[in-house]
Amino acid sequence: MNWLKKLPLKRKITLVILLTCSAVLLLACGVLAAYQLFDFRRTLVRDSIVLADVIGKNTRAALAFQDENSAQQTLSTLQSEPYVSAACLYDANGNEFANYVQSGSGVQLPAHPPAAGHYFELGHLALFHPIILNGKQIGTIYLQTELKGMYNRLRVSAGVALLVLLGSCLVAVLLAAPLQKPISGPILVLAEAVRNIAQRKDYTVRVPAQDSNETGLLTEAFNQLLAGIEERDKALRGEIAERKGAEGKVQSQLARLELLHSITRAISERLDLQSIFQVVIRTLEDNLPIDLICICLYEQNANVLTVVGLGTSGAALATQLGLSREARVPIDENGLSQCVRGRLVYESDVSGAKFPFPQRLAQAGLRSFVAAPLLVESKVFGALIAARKQTEGFSSGDCEFLKQLSGHVALAAHQAQLYEALQQAYDDLRQTQQAVMQQERLKALGQMASGIAHDINNAISPVALYTESLLEKEPNLSARARDYLGTIQHAIEDVSHTVARMREFYRQREQQLALTPVNLNQMIQQVIDLSRARWSDMPQQRGIFIKIETDLAAALPPVMGVESEIREALVNLIFNAVDAMPNGGTLALRTKISGKPARLAQVEVTDTGIGMDEDVRKRCLEPFFTTKGERGTGLGLAMVYGTVRRHNADIEIESAPGKGTTFRINFPVPAMPAGAPAKDAAPFVVPSRLRILVVDDDPLLIKSLRDTLETDGHVIVTAGGGQEGITAFRHAYERKEPFAAVITDLGMPYVDGRQVASAIKGISPSTPVILLTGWGQRLVAEGDIPAHVNHVLNKPPKLRDLREALAQTLSSTKS
Amino acid sequence: MSKRSSIASWFYILLLVVAPMNAPAQSKEYQIKAAFLFNFAQFVNWPSGAFPGTNAPFCIGVLGDDPFSGALDATIQGETIDNHKIIVERSQNVADLKNCQMIFVSKSERKHVAEILSALDSKPILTVSEVDGFAERGGGINFYLAGTKVRFEINPGVAQSDGLKISAQLLSLGKIVQSAKEDK
After folding, report:
1. pLDDT tens-digit series, residues A703-735
2. A47 domain residue, yes or no
3. How far is residue A687's CA from residue A690's CA, in Å, rounded to a whole number?
4. Is there a domain that residue A69 lies in?
């Protein structure tokens, strides 16, 4: 039925009328047809019965008298009945007696009659009628009547009915057209109005008022509805416009946020200022309609802005403005000064500006600009300046965005600076750490060496004392013995020097060591001798010959310095030169005087070795820098440099790969040649027969000291340990036989020399205490002469030193 | 000889087949005739004066020798004509049958046809016979055989002059004859 729903109203009404008419008519026709059929059949049966009866009566006699011919004649009268197609007479026994078959009908007659009655069969009516004579059935007549006639009549009736139906429908259609108008008209008007509204969205349309029936009410209601819709539509449009505006704002805000985010992310990945500024400028140029953008750093002292970052697209404009990189922009009163005070400055139109910077912009065709301060910890360190050719070129959103951005940029820049500082600090720390580690290593080595030196000094002390004593006090010695003893004495001195050098290996800077005049020519001779093993013996073992040349300036003035340090530095230079000549060569040592007003004493160490390239040359003085791999500590030249710096000298290095190397140290020559306070063997008088307490845990040393001092005429009491020495001193003091002086070892178990000295001074503050030590020089060097000690003597002690110390301390304590 | 003998033998066989039916064939003719007699009574109207009373039976008289040998009695058994019971009376003398409505004149009376007819003249009695010329001589209906079929001739003038009304249907079935003038 969908099609029916889709039909237009007019047609629907017409169709409804038509269908109703047709249905009623069809029903009527059907009833009529049924009745007619029924009537036809009844009539037919009745007619047939009448006919059968007549024929039956007319053939009664023929049947009774068995006259077939007569019966046949009677039946043949049926020819006049066109619809009787066949007839048959049966006698009382049911045997066929006479028959009639319409020519051309080809009817089969029943052989025996069934019970009387009529039967409608296919296309005909079969009637069996009894023939009664005198109340007795003497036979049966059979009549077959064609129904064709009835059908013909029915067909005619149907045709007529159809015509009537069609006619009625036509009339219905004709009548429906005008009759439906009052119903469909208003509805169609409404529909048309609705269609127009739907198409044109024009809710101002109103449907004209109609009759005051239901359609009228509908129209009125519809118009009211329209009015409502119109009102709401208007409101809705307004709201939509509002929302669109808001959405646009949100979108642009979002876009800015996105931009801000992307810039922030980009700059957070960068750690140097220039790259941060470039990223910011490039991104802003790509994403905002800005004609000129630059980033400046603020120099507070000079009160200028220096351009450090510039956009590429505004480059021409910038050149025109004189705003190239590194250009300096003075801060003018109104615009930029506000900015450097931390406020965002926005000039919407600079065409009439009075101040220099806006005027410059205006001359270049720019009309509006924003200057956003780069603030870190409420200090302005720069500004972000953006300009456009339009007036009013920046919205409040733009300004806010630039402000935010400048905040981020400032933060990132600050972080970059912090990072740089951190990196620097980290690098320093690492170097320091390495140096400390190296020093620790050296310190450990030095401590070990110091221990060894101490033991050696202890061990050779008796040897030195006895030798000196023998040579001094035994005039009867044979020449050979005296010679031997002299050799022993020299050997002991050599050992003691060697041990002293070993100690210097670990020794810290001995700032307090007094500078003494140093003869560099002598020094060079010394170091050649000292390092002979290294430049002569060891290479020769490998079949390498190194030739030494010296060229010493005759009148070289002495320089002020620490002899041992300078010696060490020169030795290091010689070692370095030897190492640079693995295949042999010439090592030249020269001294010169440079004739400049500031006179310089120059020492040159030149080799003909492999030389250094520029990079190595620059770095060779750095601590721990070495080209010798595992063999080198990287400290040799660093020590040389340290020494040179401490002597206010400087060092020059001339080298090229394959050309050899020259190290040149320029020592300043003091204006007044320091009068060498030559340590004359000052005459001193040692009082004789002194009571002296010697405290030492080394019996050999005690014995040697006792022997030698007793030889000088002193009275010696010895103690084998600290506590024993203190006890002995106290007893003697209490017995009123005090000791004139105490000589004590420093390093002793349980109670060491310091404690002994303090105990002695506690008992008798005036008694001098001489400390004998294997670490003597170090104590002096470190300024660590213990309290209560009057003099420190190094092991191995020399008799002469001992006597001098006694004399000095006694005289000073007496005075 | 052979051919003749073969035909003779065929004929003989036919005889053998037909022979047993001879006697019934004889009686069948009279069964039909008996039925016809009854049928005549149904197609002929007798005047009311023909019956002595309303309850008087319809009497069929057989004059002379009865050729029906019980067929007539069987035919009329239980039948009525216009509410009149049917009875059969047999007599050799026509006077005995003066109250009958129909009289069958047997062949045995063929010599006395004239006297019988004159005796019954002007009486409402239908006379039926099987004697040739019976109708022409003034009888009502006379049987004759047309082949094997029993047919009859009717002299409607004689029959109707005596007040009888003969049905047109019956007339249409019978052979209509007229009384011979010379005989009258």
Report:
1. 888 888 888 888 899 888 889 999 999 998 888
2. yes
3. 7
4. yes
pLDDT digit string (tens) for B136-159?
Answer: 888 889 998 888 888 899 888 876
Using a CB–CB cutoff of 8 Å, tell me whether A71 touches chain B. no
Domains of chain B: 24-176 (3.40.50.2300)
On whether any CB of chain A is under 8 Å from the CB of B45, the answer is no
**Shared domain check, A522 and A379:** no
Q: What is the ipTM of this complex?
A: 0.78
- Residues from chain A that touch B79, judged by Cβ atoms under 8 A, are 134
Rounded CA gap, A793 and A698, in Å? 16
For residue A239, what pLDDT is reported?
93
Distance CA B59, CA B84 (A): 9
- pLDDT bucket at B183, cuts 50 / 70 / 90: very low
Strands of the sheet with A345-347, listed across from one edge: A328-330, A304-310, A292-299, A379-388, A368-376, A345-347
- CATH code of residue A358: 3.30.450.40
Residue A517 lies in a domain: yes
Which tens digit of pLDDT belongs to each residue from A567-590?
888 888 998 898 888 888 899 999
B19 pLDDT tier (thresholds 50, 70, 90): very low
Q: What pLDDT band is residue A778 in, cutting at 50, 70 and 90?
A: low
Instruction: Compute CA distances A86 → A52, A100, A151, whole Å.
Output: 12, 5, 19
Within this chain, do residues A717 and A648 fall inside the same structural domain, yes or no? no
* Residue of chain A nearest B83, judged by CA positions: A134
- Residue A445, pLDDT above cutoff 80: no
Domain shared by A341 and A310, yes or no: yes
The pLDDT, as a whole number, for residue B54 is 78
Q: By the 8 A CB rule, do A192 and A205 touch?
A: no
Interface of A with B in 123-162 (CB under 8 A): 133-134
User: What residues of A are in contact with residue B32 (Cβ under 8 Å)?
Assistant: 66
Any A CB within 8 A of B167 CB: yes
State the Cα–Cα distance between residues B46 and B83, nearest whole angstrom. 13
DSSP string, A153-177: HHHHHHHHHHHHHHHHHHHHHHHHH
Is residue A306 over pLDDT 80? yes
Q: Which of A394, A409, A442 marks a domain boundary?
A: A394
Reply yes or no on whether the pLDDT at A815 is more than 60: no
Judgement on whether residues A657 and A571 belong to the same structural domain of the protein: yes
Strand A741-745 to strand A715-719: parallel, antiparallel, or no bridges (unpaired)?
A: unpaired
pLDDT at A661: 92
> Binning pLDDT at 50, 70 and 90, where does residue B184 land?
very low
Chain B residues within an 8 Å CB radius of A66? 32, 149
Q: Is B39 on the interface with A (CB under 8 A)?
A: yes
Whether the bond between A796 and the residue before it is cis, its omega within 30 degrees of 0, is yes
Both A33 and A81 in one domain: the answer is yes
Which residue has 């404009």 as its token pair?
Answer: A317
Question: How many structural domains comprise chain A?
Answer: 4
Q: How many CB atoms lie within 10 A of CB A703?
A: 16
| Long-range own/partner contacts, residues A534-537 (CB < 8 A, 24 or more apart) | A534/A574, A534/A575, A534/A578, A535/A574, A535/A578, A535/A587
Between helix A9-58 and helix A181-200 the angle, nearest 10°, is: 140
State the count of interchain CB pairs (< 8 A) between A and B.
28
Residue A277 burial (C-beta neighbours within 10 Å; 0-12, 13-18, 19+): buried
Q: Which residues of A764-796 are buried (b: 16+ CB within 10 A; e: fewer)?
A: beebbbbbbbbbbbbbbbeeeebebbbbbbbbb
For A55, the domain range is 6-175
Q: Return the CATH number at A566.
A: 3.30.565.10
Q: Closest residue of B to A64, CA-based?
A: B39
Confidence at A164, pLDDT banded by 50, 70, 90: confident
B116/chain A closest Cα distance in angstroms? 27
Domain of A716, CATH number, reads: 3.40.50.2300
